[in-house]
Fold:
Amino acid sequence: MSKVILLGAGGLAREVLDGIEACQRAGQDIQPIGYIDADAALWGQEINGLPVLGGLDWFDEAPGRRDIPLIAAIGAPRSRRHMVQEALRRGLQFTSLVHPAVHLSSRAQLGLGVVILAGCVVENRASIGDFTVINNLCFIGHDVQLGAYCTLAPGALLAGGSRLGDGVDFGIGAATRQGVTIGSGAVIGGQAMIVEDVPANAVVVGVPGRVMRFFTPAWEEE
Ligand SMILES: CC(C)(COP(=O)(O)OP(=O)(O)OC[C@H]1O[C@@H](n2cnc3c(N)ncnc32)[C@H](O)[C@@H]1OP(=O)(O)O)[C@@H](O)C(=O)NCCC(=O)NCCS
Structure:
């Protein structure tokens, strides 16, 4: 069995665990053995039948552990980047998870450590950056380019050729017009309709989407 460990022990990690179990039912050779989380209060607890093994130091405590890949399952882009970069600095490995109920074009490109949950459609020549998480029921149109560490909440709709920078937090049920560009670190509110380019780190809400404020610290500064 190919063991995997979830990086994060929150709500997204439980959703990813459900996705792993769907992969098992579909015949994939994958075996989750637990969660790694920075919150020491969780260490030793059991969540959905799996233990929270500890923090990243857990990998150094016995030989062989460093061979087990992580799946990055932390919802917030900035927190995910922080933990993933620390894990990469320690030389740990990552793998991706694509739920079996995803329509993934054979011409789409996936980066390292990507998560795509149930019911998503990823179309022709879409490209998904490293450590990006695409939650349930999202549509990623043809030629869409997603940067690294983005989070797409359930029901996001990205029209053909849209481009998202790194770390974009794209809200539940929000959508883009074809070809728009969203800068790194932007936060798109639930149900927003993005009809024009969005600057980096902008928080945007409404239909049509309007900048409400700017997120601090900026994505590039953290
Ligand atoms: C956009 C968002 C990030 C703003 O969060 P915030 O900065 O904490 O904003 P607040 O809740 O303080 O609201 C500020 C104002 O924006 C409005 N607002 C907040 N979210 C909005 C949205 N999605 N659409 C329209 N208006 C919104 C509020 O009503 C409030 O208006 P007011 O000043 O007239 O009272 C957040 O509301 C949001 O939509 N997040 C997406 C959540 C999501 O997709 N979760 C998925 C989890 S799986």
